[in-house]
Each structure stands twice: as structure tokens, then as C-alpha cells.
Specification:
Elements: E1 10-12, H1 21-27, H2 37-54, E2 60-64, H3 68-79, E3 85-90, H4 93-104, E4 108-113, H5 122-131, E5 137-141, E6 143-144, E7 149-150, H6 153-162, E8 166-170, H7 182-185, E9 189-191, E10 205-209, H8 211-218, H9 231-238, H10 252-268, H11 270-290, E11 306-310, H12 317-328, E12 330-334, E13 343-347, H13 355-369
Parallel strand pairs: 1-12, 3-4, 3-5, 5-8, 8-9
Antiparallel strand pairs: 2-10, 6-7, 9-10, 11-13, 12-13
The structure holds pyridoxal-5'-phosphate (PLP).
Residues 15, 67-69, 72, 94, 141, 145, 170, 172-173, 193, 195, 202 line the site of pyridoxal-5'-phosphate.
Length: 371
């Protein structure tokens, strides 16, 4: 065995995205103890900067020490009690995973279905709320990475609120890439990931819960059936001021990386970051359209940072992706689930959402497709 030296790739798939050198070098700084006062100070700064990213004042805003999927599980395992009715919107892979979570924790999933490649239809959510007045939660994916559809989180949350339901929102791909206003939109519980539009390393999941959601966690009649993700315990570790109790050993160096990526987000400004993702999308769209390629999602529901395009007839999906990877060091994503083999998913997330990278992606695609 020898040291592992990964090739230098350009990551334009559904995540992880390219990581800025500043974030990578932050990660290589010396490890200190996870209860070291200096480290605890840095944890507080991460929480403050995450509040900015999520646009929230929620005291419980912090990263779970595990990937986006664990943030998803943290929301459902804390908020769903056996017998709870949960309205779940499914328009792609991640909505299906939400349903799986609900059912594993003893909830009853009321499924609202939309076609893959379209946004969640708010009127369907409203109809489900009316048909199930005893439902306690509405759960949906803001940015469906499996298809590239962006749903109207603001409207869906208003419907949930009007019907006395809490909301659980998947913002793994939306955070940092498109507008997201946790407090203004009345989102009760939200989770995200670090490896998509935050351009940080994979393996952390920022979450935020408001007081209404925390009340439900505190007043459960049954214990949270996960020890690691029980927020009552995690809060003792990430809570402010009070003496921190050992819960688990935080991934110290990954948190240095998150801190640096959040400093960079603050420097750039949220709105400028959104504008950069939108501009990269426009540039990609112009180039792909010129090549005669078509998008899966209608223009008004399209997510700038995840572009599903239809694979042209007669083109070998895996062979083209293989050539891009081997000859151009460029990764683009394959289709998932119902779209496997039919589409490519081109990610413009975080540090991958840059003019020069879009230009490179277009040139490489043109070359391998012989256009
Ligand atoms: C990537 C993703 C997840 C899962 O995140 P991991 O870090 O891969 O666990 C969940 N939801 C959506 C919408 C995603 O794009």
C-alpha cells in the first residue's frame, strides 16, 4: 500500500461539489480537543454563521456530526411519534426517503405525489391537509436533487401553518444556492448538508428547529428512539453558555472546514451567492440549448444548481460519463430512480458554480458528443 493521492477532478454532479482551497487548508490545521475552550468558541461562531445562512434566529441551529441523511433522520426521529399522521410530498428520490423515515418511526405517511421533474403542487398539499385535519406535520423537499425541481417552500409552509401542521423541510441542495428564509417563511424544522452549495466537505448536516418544533420534542410521550440523534441530548453538547456535556467527539477538522466555508459565504453575501448560482445556470442553459439539448424540468420550476438534461438519442450514458471522468477529470451525475439512464444531472453547486467551470463543462461535453 502507498499513500492515496486522489486525481484533481472538477465536480459537477449532484454533490459533493468542488471545495475551495481555503476550506481544504482550514481542514488541515492541527486538531485540538473538542472541549478545548478555543474549539467551543469556534462552535459558537459556526452556529451564528449558520443562522445567517438559514436566515433564522432559532437558538437550536447547529451541524449534526453526520451527512445530510442524518439531518433528515434527526428531524423525523425527534418530531414523529408513533401514530402521528405526516403529510409527505414525493416528487423524487428524497421525498421517498422522507416517507421511509416516517414509517420507520411509527408514523402514518399521507403521500402527496407529483411527477418526477415537477415541483410539489401546493393545492395538493392543501387538499391533503383538509382531508386529514388530524395530520401533525407536512414534510417536503425544497430542492429535489434527483430531478432538479424547486418547490415553493414559502407557499407550502403557509398552508401547513394555516392547518396547524409543523413543517419539516429538506434544504440539503437549496442552502446557499437559492433563496431560503427559515423565519420569514415559518419553517419549523429544517436540515441541510455541507457538500452541496456550501462547498464544504461531505459529512455534516446543519439543522435548525424553532421553539414550536422544540416544544413537540420536549413534550413527547415516548423517548426519541435514537440515542445519537436525540436533540434533548445533542443540545447539551452544542447548547450556549452552559457547561458542555460530552455527547460525542465532534469531527474537529471537518468543523474547521465548515467554519471556513461559512466565513466565505459571509464575505460573498447570501444574495451574491444566489446570483452566482443563477448566472452559472443561465450560462450552462445557453450552451446546452445551442447544442440542442433539452431540460427535464420546466423553466419556471428549475433549480439553478442542479440541471437535469435529457441524454440525446443513441448516446451511451455510462460511456460518455466515463470519458468525461477519465479524459477530462470532469464528474457529472447520472440519473436516479425513474430517470436512471435517461438524464444527466449537471451540478452547479458552491465552488462549481463558476464561469470558467461552466465553460469547461460545455467544451468537454461538446468534444465527447462530437458536436
Ligand atoms: C444529497 C441530499 C441528501 C442527502 O445528503 P447526504 O449528505 O448525501 O447524506 C438529502 N436530500 C437531498 C435533497 C439531497 O440532495
Amino acid at each position: 500500500m502507498q499513500s492515496f493521492n486522489p486525481p484533481i477532478r472538477t465536480l459537477m454532479g449532484p454533490g459533493p461539489s468542488d471545495i475551495h482551497p481555503r476550506v481544504l487548508s482550514a481542514m488541515a490545521r492541527p486538531t485540538i480537543g473538542h472541549l478545548d475552550p478555543q474549539f467551543v468558541g469556534m462552535m459558537d461562531e459556526i452556529k451564528e454563521m449558520l443562522k445567517y445562512a438559514f436566515q433564522t434566529e432559532n437558538a437550536l441551529t447547529m451541524p449534526i456530526s453526520a451527512p445530510g441523511s442524518a439531518g433528515m433522520e434527526a428531524c423525523f426521529v425527534n418530531l414523529v411519534e408513533p401514530g402521528d399522521k405526516v403529510i409527505v410530498c414525493i416528487n423524487g428520490v428524497f421525498g421517498m426517503r422522507m416517507q421511509e423515515n416516517i414509517e420507520r418511526f411509527g408514523g402514518e405517511a399521507i403521500v402527496v405525489t407529483d411527477e418526477w421533474g415537477t415541483a410539489v403542487t401546493p393545492s395538493k398539499v392543501e387538499a391533503a391537509c383538509k382531508a386529514h385535519p388530524d395530520a401533525k406535520i407536512v414534510a417536503f423537499v425544497h430542492a429535489e436533487t434527483s430531478t432538479g425541481a424547486l418547490s415553493d417552500a414559502k407557499t407550502i409552509c403557509k398552508i401547513a401553518q394555516d392547518n396547524d401542521c409543523l413543517t419539516i423541510v429538506d434544504a440539503v441542495t437549496s442552502l446557499g444556492g437559492v433563496e431560503l428564509k427559515v423565519d420569514e417563511w415559518g419553517i419549523d424544522a429544517i436540515y441541510s448538508g455541507t457538500q452541496k452549495c456550501l462547498s464544504c466537505v461531505p459529512g455534516l448536516s446543519p439543522i435548525s428547529f424553532n421553539e414550536k418544533a422544540l416544544d413537540k420534542v420536549r413534550n413527547r410521550s415516548t423517548k426519541v428512539p435514537s440515542w445519537f440523534l436525540d436533540l434533548n441530548l445533542v443540545m447539551g453538547y452544542w447548547g450556549k453558555g452552559a457547561k458542555r456535556a460530552y455527547h460525542h467527539t465532534a469531527p474537529v477538522n471537518s468543523l474547521y472546514a465548515l467554519h471556513e466555508s461559512l466565513v466565505m459565504l459571509q464575505e460573498e453575501g447570501l444574495e451574491a451567492a444566489h446570483a452566482r448560482h443563477a448566472a452559472a445556470h443561465e450560462q450552462l442553459k445557453a450552451g446546452l440549448t445551442e447544442m440542442g439539448m433539452e431540460f427535464v424540468v420546466a423553466a419556471d420550476q428549475r433549480l439553478p444548481q442542479l440541471n437535469s438534461v435529457i441524454i440525446p438519442d443513441g448516446v451511451d450514458d455510462a460511456a460518455i460519463r466515463g470519458t468525461l471522468l477519465n479524459d477530462y477529470n470532469l464528474e457529472i451525475g447520472a440519473g436516479l430512480g425513474a430517470l436512471a439512464g435517461k438524464v444527466w444531472r449537471i451540478g452547479l453547486m458552491g465552488d462549481s458554480a463558476r464561469k470558467e467551470k461552466v465553460l469547461f463543462c460545455l467544451a468537454a461535453l461538446k468534444a465527447v458528443l462530437g458536436k
